[in-house]
Ubiquitin-like domain-containing protein
Amino acid sequence: MLSSESKRSYDDGSGCLDSAGLEIRPGGMLVQKRTVETNPSSISIPTIKISVHYGSSYHEILISSQASFGELKKMLAEPTKLHHLDQKLIYKKKERDSKEYVARVKQGSRIVLVEDILGRDKRSHLWKQQLLQVGKFPRQMWRNGLSF
């Protein structure tokens, strides 16, 4: 503990001890000054830039390193006009699950986006079955194989 003489030599009257990076709390406790680096709630989450290739086009995406591939798919849904369930993301020659995190992807990495045709057909078939059960899908269209 600092004696009252040493406190007076560092104290500028505002309760802050400038030269030592210390401050005196209202209760009289001497503590280290708080900064942005020492406050864990103010730590920023790094964003990474990913290049996503789809067909002959590519998209530059800025995404949080704590995001999942599912969130990346949702971000890509609008520019690619593909539903997020109809997408497959391939990184390092492996298809990535929507629940996996993007954290292992490095800055500037390239990810390939491929349309999942089987998934789209399966989802479309299930959707039509649900509409038939509710009675909102005409059976004639279902029998004739027409789609809209």
